[in-house]
cinnamyl-alcohol dehydrogenase (Hibiscus syriacus), 319 residues
Amino acid sequence: MSWWLSKKKKKFPRHQIKLTEDNKCPTMTRVPEEANPNRPLDGQPLHEIVGEVQNFKVGDRVGVGSMVGSCNSCDNCADDIENYCPKMIFTYGGKYYDGSVTYGGFSDTMVVDEHFAFGIPKNLPLDAAAPLLCAGITVYSPLSFYGLDMPGLHVGVVGLGGLGHLAVKFVKAMGTKVVISTSPGKQKEALENLGADSVLAANGTFDGFVDTVSGQRPLLPLLGLLKSHGKLVVLGAAEKPFKLPASHLIQGRKLIGGSMIGGMKETQEMIDFKAKHDIKADIEVISMDYVNTAMDRLLKADVKYRFVIDIGNTLKATW
Ligand SMILES: [Zn+2]
């Protein structure tokens, strides 16, 4: 099976990527309906895709993340934040320039505009690279944009799933002290295996939070934990609007912000940062025939921390 992007409206040089040989591992993740109204009709989005280029330079290792197109003419595109382009095209469940639907990583081959393919460094295993292309950049970008990547800061990570475990690792690599705020059952692992410095601490002690939780959750306790000028960055969608008393923002001049994936330039920077600092996503490589079981496990949050599907049963887990 393959899906092809239309060649009628060519915006950038295109790469054909073969996903049928050794290295192909779209990562499976669950996106809430409310966060992705354009999701595919037939299932879960696979939007962290790696493979080998065929037609441009055979053998190059590349990846495709959540985007496969943008207008290339708006201010956001000019500022390298294509992810906020009003005409950004999602890799899955999006409408391409010609109106055809994009189908993500459930395919043997795909064609992508050169601009929307990332280079994967040779020292970065492809299966571990795949989770970076959405989860990795989703946590890396806000840490950078909101100035939470400075050594010595006290940053909290809320939620310890696919995004949260990568956030802990990035924060540590940036030289920032990381505190994990999560369920008691995960605290031991966060401290011993992921490198968190401590578990949730006292009010008024945090410079910022990255909140990776999806669904309803109270933000008020997190605001209380922030120092003056502290920043709470929301990354996960919720079904209902948040309820917040303004006084909790006014007192201490606190800020709540949001963030969604990242631009192409910043994503490549993140991939190179990860390779340089040897940051490893924790993954579980599965075969295609395990997908339904994996979906059931995802609904129970029973995965550490990302499934990577080996469509051709040719990958071996590297850790
Ligand atoms: Zn644009």
Notes: The longest strand covers residues 226-234. Residues 1-10, 20-44 have pLDDT under 50 and may be disordered. The pocket of zinc ion is lined by residues 70-71, 74, 76-77, 85, 87 (CB under 6 Å).
